[in-house]
Amino acid sequence: MPEFNRRNLVLASSILAFSFASAMPGYARGAAKSPAKPNIVIFLADDLSYADVPLGGDGNVRTPALQRLAAEGLSFDRAFVASPACAPSRAALLTGMMPARNGAEANHDRANAAIRKLPSYLQEQGYEVVAFGKVAHYQHTGTYGFDYYANDTFHDHKGIPAAAEWLKARKDKRPLALFVGSNWPHVPWPRTTEGYDPAAMKLPPKTVDTPITRDARARFYAAVTRMDQDLASTMDAVDAVLGKDTFVLYSTDHGTQWPFGKWNLYDTGTRVPMVVRWNGHVKAGTRTDAMVSWVDVLPTLVELAGGETPDGIDGLSFAGLLGVGKAAGGRKEIFTTHNNDGRVNVYPMRSIRTDRWKYIENLHPDWTYTTHIDLKVMRTDSGAYFPSWREATDKDPAAKAIVDSYYKRPAEELYDLQADPDEKVNLASDPRYAKPLSELRSRLAAWRKAQGDSGAVPVKPRFERGPMSGESD
């Protein structure tokens, strides 16, 4: 029998078997015995660091739905994205490949059309694969092969209720893989603090404390709480229609849009919250410090769906951490990359992170690091506080050190994460740490060579600090 026909016969048999099982009483409402092919729900938030939620230690913000999900599932304390910008991060998730290999290196880039995407792998296993909201980057969703998608434009908040209504009306008997993307807490943040007291909160490290900064931080927290409300309404629909035996994965696409978060390779830019709830497989209220990457989500979901880990991708399945398969799951090292976002955020950098060390290679230390936050012509209201940071440098040495470290980066950065989890003290020039520096430099170089990563950025760099020349704050 030709291979193509054999695959189709197996697929048809799987769908027929699933349709029979799904017609049994109690199946869709979470019967005691989990289905062979679990329904899958992936909920993605937008611009939120691990450090900025209670799971990561932030006591300021209210996220009752996320905390409830964590109480019912497994929390990953060391989950990382491939790149701290929306399009490259989401392309890595949906291809299982790092940016240099999938083609989406700059923000707004699209993954190579010839690369097989996650929906195709799940469809092969008999799944209906659907997306609502910001799952891929804005208006990129149609290129990923979903069976149906909607509401993938900027801050289109109709996607959350649309997903719930679609789910309640669904008649299809295939197993479901539902992707739901909230636009929160991506800027612009709410105009009011919505119950958060700017004066009462504790600011994160490497922050210049000014009144307008505190107001911005409070509005950011308001946006996080709106994300949490999106999660709550989505989970209400999922539990009512699909049942609590549904496999649910929550995560965020990269760090918060804050000066050392998004567009940075510090943990505040690449370390993200991730929670898995899966009754009967994952013990409620547990945590793991296994290191995983967003490229690992694709092979994990394929394995849970009954398929084999695809060849030729960068992702490694962590299904073993979820009680499936023999491999334990988790990585010894995490690689991350950043290039640019058109003519903004033009600052290519590469990083390797181990259990103890973080090494960052800034490919062009002669360029100036600038982003949407400090460039006046690009600044949304979330960056309105940055001029107050610049003004504070005249009288406050600590503020000057923070602002200078934002704009100018050395060629190499090395951090001892055990002693310095906030990555404040660069050890790269300290001869006592020459050995780990050399080893990490070599490992990163070898990885880049294997990836075919040239580091080229096809746009002009920036040399002046924002605001742009000829403008004033």
Short description:
30% of the residues lie in helices and 15% in strands.
Feature tags:
30% helix; Alkaline Phosphatase, subunit A; alpha/beta; 2 domains; 12 helices; GAG_Ulvan_Degrading_Sulfatases; 8-stranded mixed β-sheet; 4-stranded antiparallel β-sheet; 473 residues; Putative sulfatase; Arylsulfatase, C-terminal domain; 15% strand; globular
Shape: globular
How many strands, which pairing sense, and closed or not: the largest β-sheet? Answer: 8 strands, mixed
Helix-strand pattern:
HEHEHHHEEHEHEHEEHEEEHHEH
The value of Rg in angstroms is 22 Å
The number of E-state strands comes to 12
Strand share of the residues? Answer: 5-15%
Region (Disordered): 450-473
Keywords: Hydrolase, Signal
GO molecular function, one term: hydrolase activity
Organism: Sphingopyxis italica
